[in-house]
Amino acid sequence: MPKATSIYDVQSNIRALPSMSMLLPDDYAEKDGWADIVADKTKINSTQLRKVFQAIKDLKREFKKNDFNRAKVALLMPSLAYANGRGHLPEELYNLLCLCFGQDKCKTLADFNSAADFLEAILAYYKYHHPQKQEG
What we know:
Blueprint: H1 7-15, H2 25-28, H3 34-41, H4 46-65, H5 70-74, H6 76-85, H7 91-101, H8 109-129
């Protein structure tokens, strides 16, 4: 995949994938990879990012017990739109998440798990780039 330097480059690279299961950890997990770029360039409250991540994690846990359900993934979209509309989820991150979990790229459990792993990497790098200040 081409080198990314912005969230828009990451979106473009993901758009070029046939599905999220084709997303390689080599592209996003390394330092200066896609997750690192998104985390560094995103201005979001860590609580809001955690809320999105928790919803994905809950679905991941559910899909381990039950079969994959595309409709439950689709129900994430209104929550993401609400957070975006309230100003809690920046437009570029909203668009990226809609792309990753949308029906074009996320059709199977493997697609969902790849998208969830990508989001987890974004969260990890976000904590790296934006550590909470210790009081004391």
